[in-house]
Amino acid sequence: MTAPIEIHFWPTPNGYKIVIACEEMGLPYEMKPVNIGRGDQFEPAFQAISPNGRMPAIVDPDGPDGQPISIFESGAILQYLGRKTGKFYGASARERVQVEEWLFWQMAGLGPMAGQAHHFRGYAPAMLPDRRLTAYGATRYTNEVHRLYGVLNKRLDGRDFLAGDYSIADMAAWPWVRPWKMQGIILDEFPNVKAWSQRIGEREAVKRSIEVGEDLRRSMDLAGAGRDAEAARRILFGQRAR
User: Fold this and answer.
1) Which of the four, 6, 118, 132, 171, has the lowest number of CB atoms within 10 Å?
2) CB–CB of 30/4 below 8 Å?
3) How many Cβ atoms sit within 10 Å of the Cβ of residue 37?
4) How confident is the model over 48-68, as pLDDT tens digits?
5) What share of the chain is helix, strand, coil (3-state, %, to 5)?
6) Measured between alpha carbons, how far is 34 from 54 in angstroms, rounded to an integer?
7) CA 30 – CA 2 distance, rounded (Å)
8) First to last CA, the chain
9) How far is residue 93's CA from residue 77's CA, in Å, rounded to a whole number?
10) Are the C-beta atoms of residues 200 and 206 closer than 8 Å to each other?
11) Nearest one of 73, 134, 142 to 113, comparing CA atoms
12) Residue 1: its pLDDT value, please?
């Protein structure tokens, strides 16, 4: 029996990408929680496999040469898993190019911009109660996420998925669309995105994935009050070079 892949995980959109991929590809996995609000990402053992100090990261005991391999960055992990299994990554060079285009679109655009919208709309007000100090950031990133939803909506016009068949590109983008309310988006403005999001959300592997880590998510409320929330915000949003 194949040894399970270790997924170093916290229930964020980037974390869920990898769980979805393993569920869809039928890969056994073992969860290794990385509590990013407590500072687990700074532990030497974790940084040995993720030098950027960010989850997700994986350790595959059955690497390409039969030896363990560790991988950080969610896009690189998705590509690796797609190559390893031969699934959800396109059957030809032309198909793989399309998958990679939309995978990197998510990595470079949708994810970072939506993350900043989450920060300025949801978390920054708890740190800076004077909304005048956060208004520009909230407006800037909400507008950019709105633009990206427009790009996504056009791409999905007449298509069920981003790059032909369902692929790692969809697995990467879907978890970032799931919290659309936090981004100030009205999903009804983007009917193709809405239909695509519902289509993916109805997949059994995706349903199973979203159940993973729900208890962890409830343990950390970054927008909340109290010492624990304040400490988590300091850890997450006050990082500088070490």
Assistant:
1) 132
2) yes
3) 20
4) 999 999 999 999 999 999 999
5) 60, 5, 35
6) 9
7) 12
8) 41
9) 19
10) yes
11) 142
12) 56
